[in-house]
Write a structure and sequence with these properties.
Elements: H1 2-11, E1 15-20, H2 28-38, E2 42-47, H3 57-64, E3 68-69, H4 75-81, H5 83-89, E4 92-98, H6 100-107, H7 114-121, E5 126-130, H8 134-138, H9 140-151, E6 155-156, E7 160-163, E8 169-173, H10 177-188, E9 197-202, E10 207-208, E11 214-215, H11 222-233, E12 237-242, E13 254-257, H12 261-271, E14 276-279, E15 286-288, E16 309-311, H13 315-320, E17 329-336, H14 340-351, E18 355-360, E19 372-373, E20 375-379, E21 382-385, E22 389-390, H15 391-408
Parallel strand pairs: 1-2, 1-4, 2-3, 4-5, 5-6, 9-12, 9-14, 12-13, 14-17, 17-18
Antiparallel strand pairs: 7-8, 10-11, 15-16, 18-20, 19-22, 20-21
The structure holds ligand PMT.
């Protein structure tokens, strides 16, 4: 009884957007809609073209009490409830069943139907309940897509092992509805950072030389984006300020795209107040003092142009030094090629951060652009060396550390 009352409270008034893709398990979405409605949720359904081969829009509409959305280019739908509004108004987007095809299109950032366009446009958390044939599930492409979607912050439930509609036995069955409902409840339950706001910087900055050339570095944004996803996963309301990267935006947060260090600082200042700031971006220390308005020409025999540099603002130091609105916990990184701990300790002091994660970026370390990292956590109480692990794992460890610090009410 207590559990039911708690679940009712968790989902009451929540808006859930259920995307039903084309798989035999689509019929189970009907019962899912009913159970979510019983728990007080507002359920809007999006049915893909393939999904409509398995269940009818009429059944979903009757059970949800809402119009079912199917077409990206429906004039009436766009006027009444466009795809951006559907994406924006959801508290949680659930894809059940999530097919191999839809996950592949999500991973690639495609928006060629209503479902994929919403998945690309939404800032709400996304829960995927995959269901497919075992061979499709085990295929390297599906597993790689899933890994990348998880790194971007998508949560998954299932699939489970069992008899499949195709006659095979193995992994690929849609998770039990009770498990999907539990995962949905989890999505709304208080994570350890619920109620806290986090600001994360990520990626490089590009400092223009002329309209076509710029100064940059090798940061891919993988570490910073993973941290943003981990903090969001722990319940924080995250703003990610990202320099130019080629990886996709993580789900479930506000992402601000910038190019230069000055734009990054302005975006960070605009996103305040925040309780936590993590500066993982590889911000260019210098910019060209006066970028050329036109492309610099390589005239025959002309002198090689010389670039006069000016110092960029230091975002980490600026945030740490704020009198008003200083985040309660400011975490920086130190990218070093030698004397890592000593240089990082000096940065902790010089920039006024509370914690520094020091990593080795020397040639051959694979830190810039790679998938793994080996960091030392430097606080005012000492140095802790973490083993080499995936960047997502580093992010997860950091999020847990932040949660512990806030629980204790202190910073290290
Ligand atoms: O993006 P990836 O490919 O995943 O690689 C991850 C990473 C190596 C970029 C990341 O782990 C990392 O080390 N980020 C910090 C890179 C850096 O610029 O380090 P730094 O030692 O030069 O700067 C120290 C700190 O000051 C950093 O928190 C940096 O964000 C910040 N800084 C630096 C200069 C500046 N003008 N403003 C800043 O805020």
């Amino acid at each position: 009884m207590w559990n039911i009352a708690r679940v009712m409270r968790v989902l009451s008034g929540k808006s859930i957007l259920l995307i039903v893709a084309g798989g035999i398990a689509a019929y189970k979405s009907l019962e899912l809609v009913r159970r979510l409605k019983d728990r007080g949720a507002l359920v809007r359904c999006v049915l893909t073209e393939a999904g409509a081969r398995f269940v009818t829009p009429l059944s979903l509409a009757a059970l949800s009490g809402e119009k079912v959305h199917q077409d990206l280019f429906s004039l009436t739908d766009e006027v009444e409830m466009g795809h951006i509004r559907l994406a924006r108004e959801a508290d949680l987007v659930v894809v059940a069943p999530a097919t191999a095809d839809l996950m592949a299109r999500m991973q690639a950032g495609m928006a060629n139907d209503l479902a994929s366009a919403i998945l690309l446009a939404t800032r709400a958390p996304i829960l995927l309940a995959p269901s497919m044939n075992t061979a499709m599930w085990e295929h390297a492409a599906t597993q790689a897509n899933l890994k990348s979607l998880r790194q971007r912050g998508c949560k998954t439930v299932g699939p489970q092992d069992g008899d499949l509609a195709c006659g095979e036995v193995g992994a690929g069955r849609l998770a039990e509805l009770s498990d999907i409902l539990a995962a949905i409840d989890d999505g709304f339950s208080a994570g350890p950072l619920k109620g806290l706001r986090a600001l994360v910087t990520s990626g490089p900055t590009h400092e223009p030389i002329d309209p076509v050339r710029f100064i940059a570095n090798r940061s891919s944004g993988k570490q910073g984006h993973a941290i943003a996803a981990a903090l969001a996963g722990a319940g924080a309301k995250v703003t990610l300020v990202s320099g130019p990267v080629s990886i996709p935006d993580p789900a479930g947060m506000c992402v601000v795209h910038v190019e230069t260090a000055e734009q990054m600082l302005a975006a960070c200042q605009k996103s305040l107040p925040a309780d936590i700031a993590v500066c993982a971006a590889a911000v260019a220390d210098w910019k060209v003092k006066t970028p050329a308005g036109q492309k610099l020409k390589k005239a025959k025999g002309a002198a090689v142009p010389s670039l006069e540099l000016a110092t960029n603002p230091d975002i980490l130091a600026t945030l740490s030094g704020l009198k008003k609105e200083r985040p309660r916990l400011v975490v920086g990184f130190a990218a070093e090629t030698q004397n890592i701990s000593a240089h990082a300790k000096a940065k902790l002091e010089a920039k006024g951060a509370d914690w520094i994660l020091a990593n080795d970026v020397s040639e051959g370390s694979g830190t810039f652009g790679g998938d793994s990292n080996q960091v030392h956590l430097i606080t005012r109480s000492g140095i802790e060396t973490w083993p080499r692990m995936s960047k997502s794992h580093v992010a997860q460890e950091l999020a847990e550390r932040v949660a512990r610090a806030f629980k204790k009410g202190k910073k290290a």
